[in-house]
Amino acid sequence: MSQNSKMEDMEKKGRHGKRRTKGGLITMPFIFANEVCEKLAVVGFSTNMISYLTEQLHLPLTKAANTITNFNGTASLTPLLGAFISDAYAGRFWTITVASIIWQLGMTSLTLSAVLPRLRPPPCTAEHQVCQEADGGQLAVLYVSLLLAAIGSGGIRPCVVAFGADQFDETNPKEKTRTWTFFNWYYFVMGASILVAVTVLVYIQDNVGWGWGLGVPTMAMFFSVITFVMGYPLYRNLDPVGSPFTRLLQVCVAAFKKRHLRMVSDSNLLYQNDELDAPISVAGRLLHSHELKFLDKAAIVTEEDDIKSSQAPNLWRLNTVHRVEELKSVIRMGPIWAAGIILITAYAQQNTFSLQQAKTMDRRIVKSFQIPAGSMTVFTMSSMLLTIALYDRILIRVARRFTGLDRGITFLQRMWIGFVISILATLVAGFMEVKRKQAAADHGMTNSPHSIIPMSVFWLVPQYSLHGIAEAFMSIGHLEFFYDQAPESMKSTGSALFWTAIAIGNYVSTLLVSLVHKYSAGPDGSNWLPNDNLNKGKLERFYWLITLMQVVNLIYYSFCAKFYTFKPIQIQMKKVNPSEEEGIQLSSRV
Q1: Are 205 and 49 in contact (CB under 8 A)?
Q2: What's the whole-model pTM score?
């Protein structure tokens, strides 16, 4: 049976003699519903989490900020585990389903902690009262709830985007261009749900109560699980094909065992076995590349390998070219993956120090209504959504005329633009903080941390908006890169690498905040990042430190992107109609 026939069998299911194609656009509402509700819950809480931790649990500012970045980091690190389980054993559908239930338990526990008085310290009634910090038991409930939410996110985040992209067959010319369009609209739908979270949910949290503010997304998540499961008959489900990490390890071990062998002069002499690789190369077979040649030794055939027998070779001694190239693809992605970490470190400040800036400023739109500080990220989301729409509808078409690429520009170029805009965002943020502190000094409010400075919060709009534009370019480009360049059998793992970069970026933020807070402390009690009075701090220097780090990172990324080699893949294209012949396409997709 050909690879093409196997792909069709995985897509189509017979009923009463008729064949019905699975996947496609009809599955998107069911898949997006799950993603929307997950983002409503996690963003609706994490965006305003600094307010909950400081005002409800009375945690110090730096401890609260680190709790947020640690949670965001953990929730972005667990996708590695979820991706492994999905790719190796459970498949994407069941991983998403079980993870959604775990996420539901975490949100339910978190909602109860906000509703029941025993699970939080007593409120502060006087302005200068020393507030009682949450005790160990109350913090334990919080941390267990956040851990369950992080584990649930670990199964949802890497699998939803890969599962959605699976619904479009890249070997079908009619569906080939829909995959990268899917990433734009996936991020657009995700951004729209975040926009609702930072407006409606944050308003409910600040003005109605945290019980309803957390209860609404909890209920939404419950209905999304039901909706997602209902779509099961329509989905194009690809079966798991065993642990990808085991295959990568087998290549390493085989290459090490044969490290003393001389390389063959012709790459065609390296071991190939289409039947063995069929389950992990349904959409296309990876071709030999000339980088990382020492790994090619894992595919050199020796007398000890005994490949004449009908049984499969010992994969701890001999591997196919396709399997060797899987490992090469993962290694080549490493430097590009690392470049995304610092951008996330910069982006993480929006939910901590930028939010604290907003809380000290005049947030009134009219006399009777003011913007919740946690809703300032609405400008980030709005600019991101607008940029995505303009990119998909206008920029791609314009760029296509100059580049000849279907997607307009490569995802590496898209990421580069995002890095540049992110540098501008933190640079501007530093200057806005200087202006904010000057306004506080001019009105004698430097020593009044809880007073509202007569300066409009809309002065912060440029930094929030620039972060949104940067994310539209960099984050989507990053996500496209991982899905496109990851081996076929490791698509969930590729998506998990995207979230892992976010995780480490948040952890770097935690480390950076802790180090700056520790080493910027002066003998007179001054600090760049004070716990109790931002007006006396030097937050602008912290922003400019991140700006400098991003400039160095941009130079590093430019070097990596220039010398990056796209994976060479042999794609067997399907017949669009009976009059056309199937063909082989060699592609280094960008």
Answers
A1: no
A2: 0.75
For helices 28-46 and 210-230, angle between their N-to-C axes, nearest 10 degrees = 160
Contacts of 49 (CB under 8 A, 6+ apart): 64, 67, 68, 71, 351
Residue 231 DSSP label:
T
Alpha-carbon span 471 to 187, nearest angstrom = 10
| Closest C-alpha to 62, from 532, 480, 521 | 532
The two three-digit tokens of residue 53, written as one number: 């931790």
Q: For residue 532, give both structure tokens.
A: 């109790």
Q: How many other CB atoms sit within 10 Å of the CB of residue 528?
A: 18
Residues 110 and 217: their CA atoms lie apart, in Å, by 11
How many distinct helices (H) and strands (E) make up the chain?
21, 9
C-alpha distance across the termini of the chain, in Å: 30
In the structure encoding, which two tokens stand for residue 404, read together?
Answer: 């000849």
User: What pLDDT, on a 0 to 100 scale, did the predictor assign at position 368?
Assistant: 76
Alpha carbons 532 and 537: distance in angstroms, whole number: 10
CA distance 204 to 210: 7
Give bridge partners of residue 12 from the DSSP assignment.
21
What single-letter amino acid sits at 505?
G
The one-character DSSP state at 575 is P
202/304 Cα distance (integer angstroms) = 66
Other C-beta atoms closer than 10 Å to the C-beta of 363 total 19
Helix axes 136-166, 61-77, angle to 10 degrees: 40
Residue 266: name the closest of 250, 292, 290, 284 by CA: 290
Q: What is the pLDDT of residues 270-310, one digit of tens each?
A: 888 888 888 887 777 888 888 888 999 998 888 887 776 55
- C-alpha 588, offset from chain centre: 24
- Is the dihedral angle over the CA atoms 191, 196, 197, 203 positive or is it negative? positive
Which residues does 570 contact at the CB level (< 8 Å), separation at least 6? 284, 285, 286, 287, 584, 585, 586, 587
By DSSP bridging, strand 569-573 and strand 284-286 are antiparallel
Q: How far apart are CA 194 and CA 188, in angstroms?
A: 10
Pairwise CA distance, residues 16 & 135, whole Å: 63
What does the alpha-carbon distance between residue 91 and residue 97 come to, in Å, rounded to a whole number? 10
Centre a 10 Å sphere on the Cβ of residue 353 and count the other Cβ atoms it contains.
22
User: Nearest Cα to 464, choosing from 371, 367, 369, 338?
Assistant: 371
Place of tokens 């430190």: 545
Residue 9, classed as helix, strand or coil, is helix
pLDDT tens for 56-87 read 887 877 778 777 777 877 777 788 888 888 88
Distance CA 219, CA 211 (A): 12
Contact call for residues 535 and 449 (beta carbons, < 8 A):
yes
Please answer whether residues 72 and 46 qualify as being in contact, where contact means their C-beta atoms are separated by less than 8 angstroms.
yes
